[in-house]
Design brief:
By secondary structure, this protein is α/β, with parallel strands linked by helices. The protein has 2 domains: about 170 residues, Glycogen Phosphorylase B (Rossmann fold, 3-Layer(aba) Sandwich); about 180 residues, Glycogen Phosphorylase B (Rossmann fold, 3-Layer(aba) Sandwich). It is about 45% helix and about 15% strand. It is elongated and about 65 Å long.
Length: about 375
């Protein structure tokens, strides 16, 4: 059983969807519990058994009781919670009543934030039998917060490479009325503080001084939209920087970008980087969190310091000036994502992690696949 309570679409939910589909393809009975009005339920219900449940808050006992009844009925071997609210509701549900033997409670961790120290947070995470960490940076942070090392497994996120291959490119030149010679710097990320958009926007005047035909297209929505629009206006960048909001066809945007930039201050792994690499795009990204586990500096992209708009602008200028370098990095990135970050690789690693943490599946290979250097 997999649980994700978030109403809005985010990169982690695509991982949930790929996981449940991969489990089903391997003949594992799988149920998804998701927000009834969320994008995840909408995308999943065509081919996945989805049960709509949503907690009003972390201590929603009514929701926990409903989930407890569902667990007793379905008797899953594993309850896998994919977001913090899901961990809380699953922990409460198992406390209110669970079949014997009690299902393993697994929790995905895709952000490089420290665990909260309040009493309830400490309690709920004590109920977790094992963490599935999207990057080694996250795993090391969990261990530093006191979680046992042998109960924290590394499972890098993966992407459906065939799905990206099939995606139709978006004609951004037509949609945004860009000049024919415009070079598009792309970014896909929620508009939240830790994604560092302010530094990326601050880098654009220096980029435009050297490359006037450059344009920045940011795909995503979030709490900082108004502040970022004000910043764009203050820098007189309205005709050079575009906030296009949430787009369900985001894979088509990756194919329309000339290069991809992720300016995060902190980052668990950065699944948008995987999409960009699968689209054969050269990368500029920060050395935050798990990003160096994805992007190999000077081979698949250029890594810069977080919060350094000058270094960011120099890296963008270098790639936009060197098409041959971009092509080489794009090819290297595609090879790397195919080898280490496919959806199949992720699901196989997850099954191995389940086994490592104590759940024995006769059909699963109990050894980890090769991990990227």
């Amino acid at each position: 059983m997999h649980i994700d309570t978030a109403p809005s679409w985010r990169g982690g939910q695509n991982q949930v969807l790929l996981t449940v589909r991969g489990m089903q393809a391997r003949k594992h009975q799988t149920t998804l519990v998701a927000h009834p009005a969320g994008e995840l339920r909408h995308r999943a219900e065509k081919d996945v058994a989805v049960i709509p449940l949503v907690p009003r808050h972390e201590l929603d006992l009514k929701m926990a009781w409903k989930l407890s009844r569902l667990v007793r009925k379905l008797r899953p071997d594993i309850v896998h919670a994919h977001d913090p609210h899901a961990v809380a509701i699953a922990a409460l549900a198992l406390l209110l009543g669970a079949p014997k033997p009690r299902p393993f409670l697994m929790a995905s961790r895709r952000v490089d934030f420290h665990l909260k120290k309040n009493i309830f947070s400490r309690w709920k995470y004590k109920q977790v039998d094992g963490f599935v960490c999207a990057s080694n940076a996250i795993r090391e942070m969990l261990i530093g917060d006191g979680f046992p090392a042998d109960r924290a497994c590394l499972v890098h996120d993966g992407i459906d490479i065939q799905q990206l291959k099939a995606a139709r490119p978006v004609d951004l030149h037509k949609e945004l009325c860009l000049p024919k010679n415009a070079l598009i710097v792309g970014n896909v990320a929620a508009l939240v503080p830790h994604k560092g958009h302010r530094y990326l926007i601050d880098a654009m005047p220096s980029v435009l001084d050297k490359i006037p035909e450059a344009r920045l297209v940011i795909v995503g929505q979030g709490q900082l939209e108004s502040a970022l629009r004000a910043q764009i206006k203050a820098l007189n960048l309205e005709t050079y920087v575009f906030l296009v909001g949430f787009r369900p066809n985001v894979l088509g945007f990756h194919k329309a970008f000339d290069i991809f930039v992720l300016s995060s201050i902190t980052e668990g792994l950065g699944t948008s980087l995987l999409d960009a690499m699968a689209a054969r795009r050269a990368i500029v990204a920060t050395r935050a969190g798990g990003i160096p586990e994805v992007v190999t500096d000077k081979e698949t992209g250029l890594l810069v310091s977080p919060r350094d708009n000058q270094e960011l602008s120099l890296a963008i200028i270098r790639l936009l000036h060197d098409q041959e370098l971009c092509a080489r990095m794009g090819a290297n990135g595609f090879a790397r994502v195919c080898k280490y970050f496919s959806a199949d690789q992720m699901v196989n690693s997850l099954l191995a992690a389940y086994n490592h943490l104590g759940y024995k599946d006769r059909e699963a290979d109990s050894s980890y696949p090769d991990e990227p250097a």
